[in-house]
Write a structure and sequence with these properties.
With 138 residues, the chain is mainly alpha-helical. It is built from four helices and no strands. Residues 103-129 have a biased composition (Low complexity).
Length: 138
């Protein structure tokens, strides 16, 4: 057995025991299957490596998404004139509590956007013009 095969076998044993951290420490992401091993062993090693690479890529996409959401949140807060502090954990995402309204800002903001308010007014007018449905006679 060659020295390269010994490392791969230790890696396969770690995977068989479910110790992914040890397998990563032994070089799971770069290990090549041992040519002396069975086909099942080689397939298990390659499959574990591919699954781990997919998981790491998903984690990076998740972190990038959270960073992008936080950046957008900060940009919106800056446009509104509200300062926010970045969370210590970059994967935490935007804060769940909205910032408190500024009491010095005296300009009233509409409760609904204009298009939504117009649609609501049309729906109310239509409902007022329509007679209620006739119920069963008792």
């Amino acid at each position: 057995m060659d020295p390269h095969g010994a490392g791969v076998h230790a890696l396969c044993i770690a995977l068989a025991n479910g110790d992914v951290d040890r397998a990563l420490a032994l070089g799971l992401l770069k290990a090549m299957p041992c040519p002396a091993c069975s086909v099942e062993c080689q397939v298990a090693l390659v499959q574990a490596r591919v699954e781990r690479k997919h998981a790491l890529a998903a984690r990076e996409r998740y972190r990038a998404r959270n960073a992008r959401l936080q950046r957008r949140h900060d940009e919106r807060a800056t446009r509104r004139g509200v300062t926010t502090s970045r969370p210590e954990d970059p994967t935490a995402g935007p804060p769940t509590n909205p910032p408190a309204p500024d009491p010095t800002n005296r300009t009233p903001r509409p409760a609904l956007p204009a298009a939504v308010a117009a649609a609501l007014a049309r729906a109310k007018a239509k409902a007022a013009a329509t007679p209620p449905p006739a119920g069963p006679e008792s």
